[in-house]
Design brief:
This protein is mainly α. It has one domain (3-115). It contains 4 helices and 2 strands. The protein has a two-stranded antiparallel sheet.
């Protein structure tokens, strides 16, 4: 796996899954006694037209994109997570068998994420 493949996996398995899961929960909250706040959000979502629901979905996609992009910025070291003074670095390693690849050493994950 390389950095670009990793970003695509995160897009599909984290971003897309979060959006799909949230829409599913809004459509039909799970459980015998969902939280009142969730029931209120569901009632709001389900009261909207198909066009309005599509806009809500688009907003969810934007929020998920912003969160994933921000996380990649942290991994890449372009968004500070420490205060003043010397900063540490984060290293993301993919290991499979004898192969070990540092995914964020020579590549900026946030750039790959923005490119798609």
């Amino acid at each position: 796996m390389n950095a670009e493949e990793f970003v695509e996996v995160i897009r599909r398995e984290v971003r897309d899954s979060a959006v799909e899961g949230t829409v599913s929960i809004l459509t039909a909250p799970p459980g015998r006694r969902p939280a009142p706040a969730l029931l209120a959000m569901s009632a709001y979502y389900n009261s909207k037209s198909a066009e309005e629901q599509a806009m809500i979905r688009h907003l969810l996609e934007e929020v998920a994109d912003s969160a994933v992009f921000g996380f990649f910025c942290v991994l890449d070291g372009v968004r500070a997570i420490e205060g003043m003074g010397e900063k540490g670095t984060l290293s993301l390693t993919y290991k499979k068998g004898d192969v070990e690849v540092c995914l964020n050493i020579d590549e900026d994950l946030h750039d790959f994420y923005n490119a798609v």
